[in-house]
Amino acid sequence: MVEPTSFFPPEAPPVEEHVRKPGVDAEVFGRISKNVNSLAANLRILEERYSNLRNRLQTSEQSIISLDKDVRTDIKLLSDEVIELKRDISDIRDKLRLISGEVKNLANKNDFKVVERYVDMWQPMNFVTRNELKKILEEKAQKSKTVANNQ
Question: pLDDT of 6-16, one tens digit each?
Fold first, then answer.
């Protein structure tokens, strides 16, 4: 970096040398010109770096905004799914309560054993149906008519 004192001549010219010398002015002008050119180049480099940083920052901000939108969308979807799951769980609880009530109304093991004893005792497989009874009665009636007719 150039020191600010380098813009000025190292010492003030003596009083008797107030008259400009063409060689000294050109030398000072050359040094100043060189310093100004150096500062301008450094300024361009800094401006370019600033521009690059600003572009990177803008790109980062756009990425963050896009990511924020995606995250918000995902959170909304998850929230909707959680609400739906809560409804489903509530429905399942209601159905389980209903099933539990129905199970309480079912016959217990002792009641079933009593009914089983009655069924074994009555033996419903040996019962006659109405149709079978009608058929048997008709056959007996036919037989008694044929027996009565034969006598």
Answer: 555 556 555 55
